[in-house]
TrEMBL record:
It comes from Calothrix parasitica NIES-267. The keyword Oxidoreductase applies. This is Glutathione-dependent peroxiredoxin. Thiol-specific peroxidase that catalyzes the reduction of hydrogen peroxide and organic hydroperoxides to water and alcohols, respectively. Plays a role in cell protection against oxidative stress by detoxifying peroxides. It catalyses: a hydroperoxide + 2 glutathione = an alcohol + glutathione disulfide + H2O. It comes from the Bacteria. GO terms for cellular component: cytoplasm. Keywords: Antioxidant, Oxidoreductase, Peroxidase, Redox-active center. The keyword RNA-binding does not apply. It is an enzyme of class 1 (oxidoreductase). SUPFAM superfamilies: Thioredoxin-like. GO terms for molecular function: thioredoxin peroxidase activity. Its EC number is 1.11.1.27.
Length: 190
């Protein structure tokens, strides 16, 4: 397997608010490409196993929300949370958790996650295929740095949460580039 240097080209199926849509649910489908999301921008991406899950809801997403202004001060244009969930689930999760600054990007089919080499089987938890927990700094589509949680494996009995957190990424951006974190796995799969 070769190391992945660019975010993979995929089409994300998203829902966007559109007041011209009649009824109580004024949203329409909108395809967003990798280029739409990453071209010409400095983006922090973090990926997690699932919306509404304990660590993701109590710490992972809320901490990125909390530190949003500090990320912006480091020149970050956008913070994106990717999960192998559909657009409806991601919307409801964001609404429940009060996400205002982090863009919740649905990877419903898992194509982006698979092409990143981060798709794992979590059938032991009844999830099926989901994302391994990681974060990355992407500049104009080029992956500059990844922090991948240890013990990457299918049906891992634990859910490590040590290096993909907001504080580790922020320390990296502020110059703590050797924040005691080993070089992560960056491999392309299929």
């Amino acid at each position: 397997m070769a190391a992945i240097e660019q975010v993979p080209n995929v089409v994300f199926k998203t829902r966007v608010r559109d007041e011209s849509v009649p009824g109580p649910n004024p949203y329409r489908w909108e395809d967003k490409t990798t280029k739409d999301i990453f071209a010409g921008k400095k983006v922090v991406v973090f990926s997690l196993p699932g919306a509404f899950t304990p660590t993701c809801s109590s710490n992972h997403l809320p901490r990125y929300e909390e530190l949003y202004d500090e990320f912006k001060a480091q020149g970050v244009d956008q913070i994106i949370c990717v999960s192998v969930n559909d657009a409806f689930v991601m919307f409801q999760w964001g609404k429940q958790i009060g996400a205002k600054n982090v863009y919740l990007l649905p990877d419903g089919s898992g194509e982006f996650t698979r092409k990143m080499g981060m798709l794992v089987d979590k059938s032991n938890l009844g999830f099926g295929y989901r994302s391994w927990r990681y974060s990355m700094l992407v500049n104009d589509g080029k992956i500059e740095k990844m922090f991948v949680e240890p013990d990457f494996a299918d049906n891992c009995p634990t859910d490590p949460f040590e290096v993909s957190d907001a504080d580790t990424m922020l320390a990296y951006l502020k110059g703590g580039k050797s924040a005691g974190v080993s070089e992560p796995r960056r491999e392309f799969v299929g």
